[in-house]
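Q: Okay, next protein. This is Malonate decarboxylase beta subunit from Pseudomonas antarctica. I've checked the sequence twice, so it should be correct. Can you predict the 3D structure?
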Amino acid sequence: MTDLLNKHSFVELGARQRAKALLDAGTYRELIDPFQRVMSPWLSRQGVVPQADDGVVIAKGNIAGLPVVVAAIEGNFQGGSLGEVGGAKIAGALELAAEDNRKGIPTRAVLLLETGGVRLQEANLGLAAIADIHAAIVDLRQYQPVIGVVAGSVGCFGGMSIAAGLCSYLVVTREARLGLNGPQVIEQEAGLEEYDSRDRPFIWSLTGGEQRFNSGLADRYVADDVAQIQQTITALLQQGLPEQQRSRQVDFYLSRLAELDAAPQIDAATVRDLYQGDRS
């Protein structure tokens, strides 16, 4: 009972609070903060109230003394969707981190992914920004780990789920969800019998954090606790680059998918068995 009382939820924190919670005390420095009023020029034209930071918080600081840039997406603003400005902030931060490394400054990156993917009001601009994020992750991870964290409650979907897959390491909680398409999109395209977006146990059994970890699509499965998430990220940063990036294991995943019978309704056990095969 004492342990439960001492836990502090990471999921319940906003993006700025999450970034501050991860960085060493006194090292937090926000880049392009809300007072600079860099926000989407497109939302107000469509009757949507913009946010001064466009729902993305970029902070530099240290984690266990190591130089890090943190990009945190605010899931409570437009479902964590990314448009031109927010996407450019993340891509730019990653690009500058890569430049740091080329100059001898070993800057790592942590991405706090609370996002539905591209912002529909800025579709093409948002897609271009997400593509820039993908390229920047691949560039930076040559030098230092890029750690993705999917905590909840929005999850990580769309083009940013690809960003999660490109990360050197991915950390998830039980509350997390990760998938290319969200439940409502799948239901709309494939029908209720294929995917019931209201069936929460079914959805989490396939795309939830525990399932993604058991399937080998995430590297760490942690409780919704600030201290535990911070400790896990610290350990991964200190561990350095993985022997092989997950996104380089294309042949393994293609061979697994080739064995899948898509006719019957998929279930969690089938997915786990599919991905837990021999990776040699």
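A: Here is a summary of the prediction. The longest helix spans residues 84-102. Strands lie at 29-31, 56-63, 66-73, 108-112, 146-150, 169-173, 220-222.
Q: Noted. On to the next one.
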